[in-house]
Specification:
Blueprint lengths: L15 H4 L2 H15 L5 H18 L3 H4 L7 H14 L4 E5 L2 E4 H26 L3 H11 L10 H31 L9 H7 L1 H24 L18 H21 L8
Antiparallel strand pairs: 1-2
Helix pairs in contact: 2-6, 2-7, 2-11, 3-6, 3-11, 5-6, 7-8, 8-10
Length: about 270
């Protein structure tokens, strides 16, 4: 299960998406998320799926590898879908005792499931095709205008970079601790929910201790190297826009405007 988490991992390969400026990918991810909440008909979601499929194809990241991250949110998705299915009011389709399923509930549940899936896959593309260093540089440079209102952009970007770097490390550490506990005879899978939660205590305690130790070592290393924030710091590889980035911006603009227009066109509305 831990190996199925793809968030924060980078997939090394040569592709057009990998070579794009991280600022383009950050803006593209945000715009893609925004469009998903603007659609009022299935046509808009169809356009989003086609756009996402083209991006996945151009990224050269195996689709099966990309959707492995979906396994970790299946339970959350099922809970959300079930709640929307039984709680949403509308025209009854099925009714038994106090359970009523409506047409609007089915549509809402399907929409939520599709939206969550697209959100997870869309965010995975950004992290799988962008190194943490480039992601930090793109976030810091792209949000530099917020420094006018005293927003600590560099510190926020640094925290994001450290968090993304620590995700694979902590997953590997968790896997080692679980294997060590299983070798000592720990039972992590049998029993009811409360027993399973109790069985996780011997894993969480050493994991938190290891995380705090790593954080302390990182702080000491940054202090020993006289780290003082973003003011006056230079970049070994400064970000520069290329022609492909300009083309990507144009494509993003066309997709955003076109998908929102089609996705809200009243003749296709069923929601």
């Amino acid at each position: 299960m831990l190996r199925d988490i793809t968030l924060g991992q980078y997939y090394q390969t040569e592709s057009v998406i990998h070579r794009l400026d991280p600022r383009v990918k950050l803006l593209g991810t945000v715009l893609f998320f925004v469009t998903l909440f603007c659609f009022k008909n299935p046509v808009g979601y169809a356009v989003a799926i086609v756009f996402l499929a083209v991006v996945i194809f151009l990224s050269r990241v195996p689709f099966l590898y990309m959707i492995r991250g979906m396994k970790t949110i299946v339970v959350l998705m099922l809970i959300t879908v079930i709640l929307n299915l039984f709680v949403t009011q509308g025209d009854p389709v099925f009714s038994y005792w106090k359970i009523t399923i409506t047409k609007q509930g089915i549509v809402q549940a399907a929409t939520i499931a599709l939206r969550i899936s697209l959100l997870i896959i869309g965010s995975s593309i950004m992290t799988l095709t962008t190194t943490p260093n480039h992601l930090t540089d793109g976030m810091e440079k792209g949000l530099r205008f917020l420094r006018v209102i005293k927003v600590p952009v560099h510190e926020i970007a640094m925290m994001m970079s450290i968090a993304l770097r620590f995700i694979p490390i902590l997953l590997e550490e968790t896997d080692k601790i679980m294997k060590a506990q299983l070798a000592r005879g720990a039972d992590l899978e049998s029993g009811n929910l409360f027993k399973r939660i109790k069985a996780m205590v011997p894993i969480l305690v050493p994991l938190f201790i290891s995380a705090f130790r790593r954080a302390n070592d990182l702080a000491n290393a940054m202090e020993a190297r006289c780290y003082r924030g973003g003011d006056g710091r230079t970049k070994m590889k400064p970000l520069k826009y290329h022609t492909r980035d300009a083309v990507a911006y144009i494509i993003l603009f066309v997709y955003t405007v076109g998908s929102i227009f089609v996705g809200r066109l009243w003749i296709f509305n069923i929601f």
